[in-house]
Amino acid sequence: MKVIICGAGQVGWQIARHLSGERNDVTVVDNNPDLVRRATDTLDVQGIAGFASYPDVLDRAGARDAEMVIAATYSDEVNMVTCQVAHSVFGINRKIARLRSKSYLDAIYSDLYRRDHMPIDVVISPEKEVATAALQRLSAPAAFDTEVFMEGHAHLMGITIEAECPVVNTPLRQLTDLFSTLRAVVVGVRRDGTLFAPESKDQLFVGDDCYVFTHVDDIPRTLEIFGKKVAKQERVVLVGGGNVGLAVAQTLESRARRVRAKVIEKSRICAERAAEALERTIVLNGDGLDAGLLAEAGIARADAMLAITDDDKTNMLACVRAKAEGCPYTIALINDPTLVPLMTPLGIDAYINPRATTVSSILRHIRHGRVRAVYSIGDAEAEVIEAEVMSTSPLAGRTIAEIDFPEGVLVGAVRKGDKVIRPMGSTRIEEGDVVAIFALAGDVPEVERLMQVSIDFF
């Protein structure tokens, strides 16, 4: 399949890495030659330096026989015009655009993206994706990462192993014996900065970050087994009242169970806009690092603090200050993945990587057909892929023990009809089943082959 990716920043680069790794013909376009050079030097892709919306640049990128264009530059308008040119001049069938501005995303203007108007097949909003991720983190405060699978029936949770964890130093195979009815599987462990798929003989040690797949009904029990307490989030302080903060505050206001939220926003214009849009939420204009302002927001009595400004260091320092003032749970928005290892030493409980959420969202739409969901873990270190098993798949009709999975691959959950079960070696995978598989980045192409869900299959 021939794909043109417009924008060679972190999101464009990650998408190019995923698609080129699956042996697709990928061309990257960016007006920054250095970013194009980075992509061509590190990935098996072609590169064109120029403005993505220019017809001659798209022509040089091979638009005449391309099947998909992904517009992920920093400009909404460039992304929109790129899709229009791709459709009107070159007849490219599938067009995906990343749009940030809230005005472009308003539901009442959704007709704008019809094929006879502005032909964009899929609109990806980083702000909406990040707001959703933030709300998911708030819903599972004991986890540093969380994602929903199988239509909400299964969750992937990132859990840090601490000294009070009851199952520390216990081989994973014994967990199955000790908790035979628990529908949970440890699919990944990060130890000393390295992520791996554990074997049954492996143990969990203090300081490990583990990824656990669990049935939604077993989340409280799973957290308890891993030494985590489930606390209600009734008072929340948001540092940052931009598009993401406003979306989170509005969602919290709309919930049936009352959550008392306060927003701190440095920009007076943004603070006034947020105050006008919110009904019950108090908006404070000032610096989220100001101890006096945090005290006025009631940080010492808050159940959680969410730092979601557009500056990573501000978010991290705000979380550190909130913890020092007595807030038990903090979440930071982190754009730079190299800062993630600092989260634990600084005592920050959870983080949101907007690039990873955007990449996951785009991959979910690219891998259409039988693939239901894709979630990128860490700095594209691994993926969780949820897909329906087809009759042509090598998985169909075999037990999990009989399938020759790579070392970096584990099955997290299997859905048969309406029932989500914990996978065992004796579990037989049938046509029509939905499986969720954890795979280290290097093993994703093999998982794609086993599932028969690579793009060119369709």
> Could you estimate the helical fraction of the residues in percent?
25-40%
The gyration radius over C-alpha positions equals 23 Å
Mean pLDDT: 87
In percent, how much strand structure appears in the residues? 25-35%
Can you count the beta strands? 24
What is the CATH C-level name of the largest domain? Alpha Beta
How far apart are the termini? 10 Å
User: Which runs of at least 5 residues are low in confidence (pLDDT < 50)?
Assistant: 453-458
Spatial sequence of strands, sheet with the most strands: 3-2-1-4-5-6
Task: Explain this structure.
The protein has 458 residues and is of the alpha/beta class. The protein contains 15 helices and 24 strands. The chain has 4 domains: 123 residues, 3-Layer(aba) Sandwich (Rossmann fold); 74 residues, Regulator of K+ conductance, C-terminal domain (Alpha-Beta Plaits, 2-Layer Sandwich), CATH 3.30.70.1450; 94 residues, Rossmann fold (3-Layer(aba) Sandwich); 101 residues, Alpha-Beta Plaits (2-Layer Sandwich), CATH 3.30.70. The strands form 5 sheets. A 6-stranded parallel β-sheet has the order 3-2-1-4-5-6, sandwiched between helices.
